[in-house]
Amino acid sequence: MDESSDKSVAQQLRDILSKNAVRVVDLFREWDEDGDGTVSKKEFRKAIPLIVQDVPKAAVDQLFDDW
Fold first, then answer.
1. Which percentage of the chain shows pLDDT scores above 70?
2. DSSP state, 21?
3. Residue 17, SS3?
């Protein structure tokens, strides 16, 4: 993540997912470790660093809350 970017963390993550042609639905299915059909904040926190390194925890939490 580029903290000096004028784009939000959410927009930067969207751009990364689009650039890599990853379907968000497929990612969510992988991230849903307990198979309950939802991605918890804990599961989300664990998954985001697999896509983007060095994302501040507060930014991940904000992104989860926004989504």
1. 94
2. T
3. helix
% the chain with pLDDT above 90: 22
Q: Is the pLDDT of residue 23 over 80?
A: no
Q: Is the dihedral of CA 20, 3, 6, 48 positive or negative?
A: positive
Instruction: Give the DSSP letter of residue 22.
Output: -
List the one residue out of 13, 21, 26 whose CA is nearest residue 67: 13
pTM: 0.66
Stated as kind and residue range, the H or E segment containing 43 is: helix 41-51
> What tokens appear for 2 in the block?
């580029």
Distances (CA, A) of 4 to 9, 14, 27, 28, 67: 11, 17, 27, 28, 22
